[in-house]
Design a protein that fits this description.
Elements (H helix, E strand, L loop, with lengths): L2 H15 L10 E5 L5 E5 L11 H15 L4 H5 L5 H26 L23 H18 L2 H16 L5 H17 L6 H11 L10 H11 E2 L16 E2 L5 E4 L2 E4 L4 H4 L4 H6 L1 H4 L3 H7 L5
Antiparallel strand pairs: 1-2, 3-4, 5-6
Length: about 300
């Protein structure tokens, strides 16, 4: 292989580890430990930043280990082997090595901006990214926060601009999916006043997707049913229920005989999301609506 070809291939991997190639959905690294074992991990959801320090590399490596490692009988037979330290050490070496390569690549390509590290970077082209459950949860959280803060008008205008810019793009699964996302933000924003227009439009867009794998609407309605505290059992979370309910994400803790008893589920539980999954995607879930739209090129 010539030096030029090797350099081009090396640059390709560097860009992938930096999160600049979102279409690459599988990015593996292999770690060899001192105890003689080898581990192969898929790390496309853990982009590396050029500003990575030894401390931040250690934190990222520990997160990858927690997310990926599965304890086995081998660990039980070798209690004196600190497998976490072995793997994390290898991951830190990999992360710091790639960070240095990214810095050198950036020096050669100063006009190319690197994305901010974000698990499940929300681009138009790659959909769903992250998973539909997390996108639906994010839509509910954004709409609920805007409703509680009294920013209905501002958010409605902003989303109207995002939808108008999406309409200018060629139809694709990503365009349909993100239209659905923004419509569900509006559905939650006006959930207790006039959600029906936005729910119906989101539902219709879902009919053109490839089932639940790319359709946010069923997941959103699962959360509605879980968090609607209706005054009666009728129309509980129904698609066209009158907006007489209130939002309750406590899992319906009620008092029965002096004991607190949960009789429902939270929005997160309704989606089957566990604490470690929420923590793993906290970067996306905590990202502001403007930042998401800006990364998608929908706003300046």
């Amino acid at each position: 292989m010539s030096a030029q070809n090797h350099s081009s291939l090396d640059d390709l991997f560097t860009m992938a580890f930096a999160g600049l190639l979102p279409r690459i959905s599988q990015l593996h690294i292999q770690i060899a430990t001192l105890s003689g074992r080898e581990f192969k991990y898929e790390v496309s959801e853990y982009p590396i930043e050029p500003t990575t320090t030894p401390d931040s590399a250690l934190a990222q490596a520990q997160r990858i280990f927690r997310d990926k490692y599965r304890w086995s009988e081998w660990d039980q037979r070798h209690p004196n082997v600190n497998v976490e330290q072995e793997i994390v050490t290898g991951l830190v070496e990999h992360i710091l090595c790639q960070a240095e390569k990214i810095r050198r690549w950036q020096e050669r390509n100063p006009s190319t901006s690197l994305p901010v590290s974000l698990p499940g970077n929300p681009t138009i082209e790659v959909f769903p990214s992250p998973r539909v459950e997390l996108l639906a949860l994010k839509a509910m959280r954004v709409g609920r926060e805007a409703d509680l803060s009294g920013h209905q008008s501002l958010v409605k205008t902003f989303i109207g601009s995002c939808l108008a810019n999406l309409d200018k793009r060629p139809t694709s699964p990503g365009v349909r999916g993100w239209k659905q996302f923004y419509l569900l933000v509006l559905a939650e924003l006006f959930r207790f006043s006039d959600p029906m227009r936005y729910r119906e439009e989101a539902s219709e867009l879902g009919e053109d997707t490839w089932g639940d794998r790319t359709n946010l609407f069923p997941w959103y309605m699962k959360m509605v049913r879980a968090t609607d505290r209706a005054p009666t059992s009728g129309n509980f979370g129904d698609f066209k229920a009158a907006p007489r309910s209130k939002f309750d994400n406590s899992g319906y803790v009620t008092n029965r005989g002096g004991h607190a008893v949960r009789v429902g589920a939270t929005a997160e539980e309704a989606l089957g999301l566990r604490e470690w999954e929420l923590a793993r995607h906290s970067g996306f879930l905590e990202t502001g609506l403007y930042t998401i739209a800006h990364r998608q090129g929908l706003v300046e």
